[in-house]
Automatic annotation (TrEMBL):
Affects the rate of fibrils formation. May have a primary role in collagen fibrillogenesis. Binds to type I and type II collagen. It comes from Cervus elaphus hippelaphus. PROSITE patterns: LRR. One of its GO terms (cellular component) is extracellular space. Keywords: Disulfide bond, Extracellular matrix, Glycoprotein, Leucine-rich repeat, Proteoglycan, Pyrrolidone carboxylic acid, Repeat, Secreted, Signal, Sulfation. Gene3D superfamilies: Ribonuclease Inhibitor (3.80.10.10). Belongs to the small leucine-rich proteoglycan (SLRP) family. SLRP class II subfamily. The keyword Disulfide bond applies. This is Fibromodulin.
């Protein structure tokens, strides 16, 4: 099987078998050392604002053994640590808290992750209007116990971590200043069209590992969005309309069976699309669906495809293993044009990816 496809593809791309054999060692070596997006997820937000965590894990607070710890400022809740050398951060993580303490007004970074907090009571952030980050992941927060106006005064909030909780809805309204919203690993089942309205600066939205069946057109208006992760949900349809700045779209492990024609045209910067482990068939795809010139990586593995769909000539990585593509049979159809840049093409499980391009690395 492997040789049949190598020959077929090699013929199409005028890469001779001799050349393939001669180069294959070198190629595989080169490819193994290539950074795939799977190994090194592209960070849409490359600048990491100073991570305000002064303690080095097990090492404990940074004062000399024997000398008394520096006094904590009086406004610090007794359950938390407010290091004097970092006056805008408050640490209340990993200490079995069942409720949220009131946040003093000077705080910009607050950490409540990995506790047993089940509610966000009204007023808790009301004095801390300068908050930039709130970490609440790894708790048991349910949607019914999130105060209606808890986030409404936070005009500067940029990152909100609510992943790994018991939410069934997206909290609303959310501060329009948000840049990153982490809502993955909850039990959210629906995203109303207006749930994310006005989030003009949102660059990354994490909604994977939820129970979402439909997102309607809620994503379309997110004009700064670069990364959208909706993997591991119950989507049968792709979102109605993609944001125009989008670069990474993750939809793997859903039940999507079709993608409309020209679907990716509205996102001219799209680089990575993952649609593995869905229910795609060739009938559900138009001939131009994946012919999007910006795409570098397309993962269509573990679907029900019988033919390789037409792809753009700029594509570098194409994953097709776990489909019903049969290289020996008549159904096998290679990409219509020679894919000059393709570096990976995996058709079958446990198969070494085939190299069909002649792109000069480096
Ligand atoms: C909230 O801020 C006001 C005004 O700065 C202050 O008087 C009040 O004590 C603060 N509340 C708490 C609980 O810190
Ligand atoms: C949150 O979900 C976990 C796991 O599903 C469950 O054990 C826990 O009781 C839930 N907590 C609340 C407050 O609903
Ligand atoms: C979005 O970001 C810009 C530039 O950083 C800022 O000026 C603007 O106020 C932000 N929008 C909102 C709604 O916070
Ligand atoms: C893909 O798109 C290009 C440019 O829009 C076009 O020239 C080409 O014919 C298309 N290929 C297929 C297979 O439709």
């Amino acid at each position: 099987m492997q040789w049949a496809s190598i020959l077929l593809l090699a013929g199409l791309c005028s890469l001779s078998r001799a050349q393939y054999e001669e180069d294959s060692h070198w190629w595989f070596h080169f490819l193994r050392n290539q950074q795939s997006t799977y190994d090194d997820p592209y960070d849409p937000y490359p600048y990491e604002p100073y991570e305000p965590y002064p303690y080095g894990g097990e090492e404990g607070p940074a004062y000399a053994y024997g000398s008394p710890p520096p006094p904590e400022p009086r406004d610090c809740p007794q359950e938390c640590d407010c290091p004097p050398n970092f006056p805008t951060a408050m640490y209340c993580d990993n200490r079995n808290l069942k409720y949220l303490p009131f946040v003093p007004s000077r705080m910009k970074y607050v950490y409540f992750q990995n506790n047993q907090i089940s509610s966000i009571q009204e007023g808790v952030f009301d004095n801390a209007t300068g908050l930039l980050w709130i970490a609440l992941h790894g708790n048991q927060i349910t949607s019914d116990k999130v105060g209606k106006k808890v986030f409404s005064k936070l005009r500067h909030l940029e990152r909100l971590y609510l992943d790994h909780n018991n939410l069934t809805r997206i909290p609303s309204p959310l501060p329009r200043s948000l840049r990153e919203l982490h809502l993955d690993h909850n039990q959210i089942s629906r995203v109303p069209n207006n749930a994310l309205e006005g989030l003009e600066n949102l660059t990354a939205l994490y909604l994977h590992h939820n129970e979402i069946q439909e997102v309607g057109s809620s994503m379309r208006g997110l004009r700064s969005l670069i990364l959208l992760d909706l993997s591991y949900n119950h989507l049968r349809k792709v979102p109605d309309g993609l944001p125009s700045a989008l670069e990474q779209l993750y939809l793997e492990h859903n039940n999507v069976f079709s993608v409309p024609d020209s679907y990716f045209r509205g996102s001219p910067k799209l680089l990575y699309v993952r649609l593995s482990h869905n229910s795609l068939t060739n009938n559900g795809l138009a001939s131009n669906t994946f012919n999007s010139s910006s795409l570098l990586e397309l993962d269509l593995s573990y679907n029900q495809l019988q033919k390789i769909p037409p792809v753009s000539t700029n594509l570098e990585n194409l994953y097709l293993q776990g489909n019903r593509i049969n290289a020996g049979g008549r159904e096998f159809a290679a990409p219509p044009s020679c894919v000059q840049h393709l570096l990976w093409l995996a058709l079958q499980e446990h198969e070494e990816p085939l190299v069909v391009g002649q792109r000069v690395p480096g």
